[in-house]
């Protein structure tokens, strides 16, 4: 019985067009990265004339990509660990009605969402704490994300208190209640929290740019930025008569940086949508 | 609760307990929060304390306390600095353009997406449109530099095949804002539509049935029922978007800006970074940050209050 209107066709076409616009920049990047270095790139093509993985090989050989991966993984793992522990231990007491001075503590926590010292005071603090040029400068300041904290707290509030009460009567203290009763019931929110922290640390670049001086401690994103912004001298590179196209290498380096995110993205996006909704509908 | 009897045979009421009674009773809870609170204190409150260098001539070797107090000197300099005023203006212009064009985009997208009846296709479009949200601007910046490059970028190659001159989008002041606004829309249209899509799914299907019976056309249904039901959400989102007008997107602009476009692209956050950490005028940069953060705080508090007034919705 359903009639197909002209409007439906138009909508379909429009949505496909939007998807193409969303995907095309990534497509172009990927194609640039697998184009053979001797191909003339100043011709508009949807597929490369000749495919070669040599840019990836060059990017890995010439740069600090490997070390960058390692440093990014270290900061991500440390960041996740710290974030999970500090967020849970702060969110759980805040979810309790009987917490003494609750209003004051909540205010103390929430105020940091609206006001911050800014880039210079943060930088001076990191230097004076002796964290400059260490991985701790990248993970400690982000140990508590207040926005995420509130979502976790709201989840804890939704757990029926009777469960905890019975454990209390059995003689559990708050630490035991948290680890034995509350956390096993919070697996999905914990997974969400973990993924938020993981994507955040994988993508973070500004803090590494200002707090990390040594090149061997740089993370993937800053190494990639340096490659992209640097004017690598192209074909006349050293004694080798090998042809190198800097555009291909830049594209390959960017691909190596976003690759993991794009691969896991379809599986993890739903966790983020939940957070976006929780945050937008009721803070 | 069992009542306890004191020494003199009097019933002990909560009034008689010392002030720290509850603290002692819930010491585990308080103990548990210590690391988190300490981390917030160190990494959020100490920098706020450090902001006092905006009122001093900060010298690294002397530290905060030894640096001479100069009062409002840096704030006076701020308003005499053409660079600062220009950055202020650019922030407002770019945020304003992003509000005018970027705010309605996800609403339109959500409403149109709702009209797609093939559920699998709808899901696919949604998933694809969220992708840019997950990518850092360091990466997106590199990607757009290649995409818009005058020599190898497909956009310019297309212009060339159509017989036009290539445009250096990222180095041409007249184009820069267009690039910033359109890449902003590109990145946020999908993600920001989530709220509206969720609100649309909450609309009672009976409204559409009633509309159909009354002879409403499809466009009338979209306009009166869907958009009508979205109005409260739109109002709230608009209030908060206006409240954020002074917060420019540092990551995006910093990663796309080149020196030829500084006149139109330099915004408060990028200028504050450059003057502070590159040129090391710590105090001046902090004064700028303080100025911006105070305005930002006032705007957000104001937005929150307005939102609460309008339909009992606030962040807190």
Proportion of residues in β-strands of chain B: under 5%
Q: What is the oligomeric state here?
A: heterodimer
Distance between the termini of chain B: 34 Å
Number of strands of chain B: 0
- Compute the gyration radius of chain A: what is it? 25 Å
Describe the structure.
- The complex is a heterodimer of chains A (283) and B (316).
- Chain A is 69% helix and 0% strand.
- Residues 233-241 of chain A have low confidence and may be disordered.
- With 283 residues, chain A is an all-alpha fold.
- Chain A folds into 2 domains: 6-63 and 218-281, no CATH class; 65-211, MetI-like (MetI-like fold, Orthogonal Bundle).
- Chain B contains 16 helices and no strands.
- Chain B is 70% helix and 0% strand.
- Chain B is flat, with a radius of gyration of 27 Å.
- Chain B has a single domain, classed as MetI-like (MetI-like fold, Orthogonal Bundle).
- Chain B has helices spanning 21-25, 27-50, 63-66, 73-80, 82-102, 104-114, 119-130, 137-147, 154-161, 173-201, 205-213, 218-243, 250-256, 262-265, 268-278, 282-311.
- With 316 residues, chain B is mostly helical.
- Classes of the chains: A mainly alpha (283), B mainly alpha (316).
- Chains A and B meet through helix 1, helix 3, helix 4, helix 5 and helix 9 of A and helix 2, helix 6, helix 7, helix 8 and helix 9 of B.
């Amino acid at each position: 019985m359903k009639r197909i209107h002209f409007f439906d066709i138009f909508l379909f076409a429009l949505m496909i067009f939007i998807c193409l616009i969303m995907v095309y920049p990534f497509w172009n990047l990927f194609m640039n990265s697998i184009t053979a270095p001797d191909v003339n790139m100043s011709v508009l093509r949807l597929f490369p004339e000749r495919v070669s993985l040599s840019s990836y090989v060059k990017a890995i050989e010439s740069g600090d990509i490997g070390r960058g991966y390692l440093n990014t993984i270290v900061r991500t793992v440390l960041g996740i660990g710290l974030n999970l522990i500090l967020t849970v231990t702060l969110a759980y007491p805040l979810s309790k009605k009987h917490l003494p001075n609750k209003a004051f503590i909540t205010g103390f926590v929430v105020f940091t969402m609206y006001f911050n010292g800014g880039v210079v005071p943060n930088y001076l603090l990191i230097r004076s704490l002796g964290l400059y040029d260490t991985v701790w400068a990248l993970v400690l300041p982000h140990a508590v994300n207040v926005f995420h904290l509130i979502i976790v707290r709201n989840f804890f509030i939704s757990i029926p208190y009777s469960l905890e009460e019975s454990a209390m009567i059995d003689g559990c203290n708050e630490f035991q209640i948290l680890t034995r009763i509350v956390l096993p019931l919070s697996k999905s929110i914990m997974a969400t929290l973990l993924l938020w922290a993981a994507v955040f640390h994988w993508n973070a670049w500004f803090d590494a740019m200002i707090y990390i001086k040594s090149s061997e401690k740089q993370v993937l994103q800053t190494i990639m930025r340096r490659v992209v912004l640097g004017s690598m001298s192209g074909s006349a590179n050293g004694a080798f008569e090998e042809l190198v196209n800097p555009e291909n290498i830049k594209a390959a380096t960017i691909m190596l940086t976003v690759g993991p995110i794009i691969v896991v993205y379809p599986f993890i996006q739903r966790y983020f949508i939940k957070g976006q909704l929780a945050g937008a509908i009721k803070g | 609760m069992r009542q306890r009897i004191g020494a003199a045979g009097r019933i002990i009421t909560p009034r008689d307990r010392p002030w720290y009674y509850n603290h002692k009773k819930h010491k585990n809870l308080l103990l548990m929060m210590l690391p988190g609170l300490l981390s917030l204190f160190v990494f959020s409150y100490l920098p706020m304390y450090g902001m006092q260098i905006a009122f001093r001539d900060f010298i690294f070797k002397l530290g905060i306390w030894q640096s001479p107090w100069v009062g409002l000197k840096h704030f006076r300099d701020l308003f005499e600095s053409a660079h600062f005023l220009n950055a202020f203006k650019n922030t407002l212009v770019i945020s304003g353009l992003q509000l005018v064009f970027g705010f309605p985009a996800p609403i339109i997208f959500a409403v149109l997406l709702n009209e797609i009846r093939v559920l699998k296709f709808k899901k696919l479009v949604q998933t694809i449109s969220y992708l840019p949200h997950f990518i850092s601007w360091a990466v997106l910046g590199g990607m757009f530099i290649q995409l818009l490059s005058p020599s190898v970028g497909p956009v310019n190659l297309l212009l060339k095949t159509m017989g036009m001159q290539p445009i250096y989008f990222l180095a041409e002041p007249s184009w820069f804002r267009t690039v910033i606004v359109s890449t902003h829309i590109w990145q946020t249209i999908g993600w920001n539509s989530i709220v509206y899509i969720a609100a649309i799914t909450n609309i009672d299907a009976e409204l559409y049935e009633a509309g159909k019976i009354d002879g409403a056309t499809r466009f009338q249904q979209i306009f009166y029922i869907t958009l009508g039901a979205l109005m409260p959400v739109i109002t709230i989102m608009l209030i908060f978007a206006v409240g954020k007008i002074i917060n420019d997107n540092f990551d995006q602009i910093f990663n796309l800006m080149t020196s030829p476009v500084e006149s139109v692209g330099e915004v408060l956050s990028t200028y504050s970074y450059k003057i502070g950490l590159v040129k090391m005028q710590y105090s001046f940069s902090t004064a700028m940050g303080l100025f911006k953060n105070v305005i930002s705080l006032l705007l957000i508090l104001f937005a929150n209050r307005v939102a609460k007034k309008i339909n009992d919705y606030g962040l807190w």
